[in-house]
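Title: Request for sanity check on 3-phosphoshikimate 1-carboxyvinyltransferase prediction

Description:
We are preparing a figure and want to confirm that the structure record we downloaded matches what your pipeline produces today. Could someone re-run it with the sequence below and paste the raw structure tokens into this thread? We only need the token string, no images.
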Amino acid sequence: MSDTYQVQPVSGPLNGAVRPPGSKSITNRALIVAALAEGQTELTGVLDSRDTQVMIESLNRLGINVDHDPENCTVVVQGCGGQIPASEASLWLENSGTSIRFLTALCSVGQGEFQLDGNARMRQRPIQDLIDALAQLGVDVSCESGTGCPPVRVKARGLLGGETAIAGNVSSQYLSALLMVAPAALGPTTITIQGEMVSRPYLDITLGVMAQFGVTIDRVQNDVWRILPQTYQRPGAYDIEPDASAASYFFAAAAITGGSVTVDGLNQDALQGDINFIRVLEDMGCDIKRDRNSITVHGKPLKGIDVDMNEISDTAQTLAAVALFAEGPTCIRNVAHIRHKETDRLSAIATELKRMGIQVEETDDSVTIHPGEIQPAVIETYDDHRMAMSFALVGLKVPGIQIADPGCTAKTYPRFFDDLEWLCGQTS
């Protein structure tokens, strides 16, 4: 893809249907759990992206046979029954936070020495809380640079179990990583969450995937979890629902253009918490039609809102784009943790909106957006797929919007611009 992508404004309201690729969050969790399970598991509806590719490549390096068929969106995993085959491996995770966190925990189950690393941004992303939690369980694991960020080295002797505590205010992925590998420990494991848990709906995804593979855990108290040793059982075939975070861009396109866009394959009961982005659009004035296997957003005149997006923070950038076309300011708050994502997303939102001439107020955990006349601009994306996909939506209504490094969408949605162009051809 070229260095920049010129977004073409649409001639009228969008009116069409689209099905985004499978959920990255579910795909990478299902890959870890299927790897730990006994026997063969077929995953269908699998997302093919750099985040899932580096996960699959790493599992193969750990001696777990994973056969990926991108054309048919399937993966066949030969589970290791809780015993990691390889005794050493070097894993390269680029900038995939889910992959490096989940795999660090997975390597602790093995017997041997493992190194996990990534690109320059990955070496700025915190992982020390997970390291400390694993160390409390007797794992010899460390951040080699001493910064609390990758690279990570694991000298594994099997996961013994025991008691550990983990902070909840940076990333729910730490707890998800511990929960998924705890059944493979030699003894019971008790995990205590310290402080507020961010992005709690992602824990529901983790627990839902684990349950599909026959494992349940005890929630002793609100923030205390107890997991007994047990083996994941293969469910045969496991179908992965479309990505709700990716769906948010198409819902937002309906809101911005005043159109009607349907996303197939999702409903209000989806496993992913980001499906609740439609409630945010509803609060802004959109009409929502909820069916058994689809959701349709009908764009209406938009009004600004004040919204806590802690639990659906991956859609914060999507809302920032929609907010530009609302009557009155929009405040996106309680999202301090998104400063530790692929980029500092709060800073990136504020910087790029200002580049378009928009007044923005940024605090430690929020941005407030005041709609105004939008100026043409080349939007920097900071190697962050969500910056590219969300800010491209602005160009549906405003000429002169270009997206720098559009290829960064390969992280989770390689065909995003193809699908957006197709939808843009469906105007009413």
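Thanks, this matches our download. The two ends are 29 Å apart (CA to CA).
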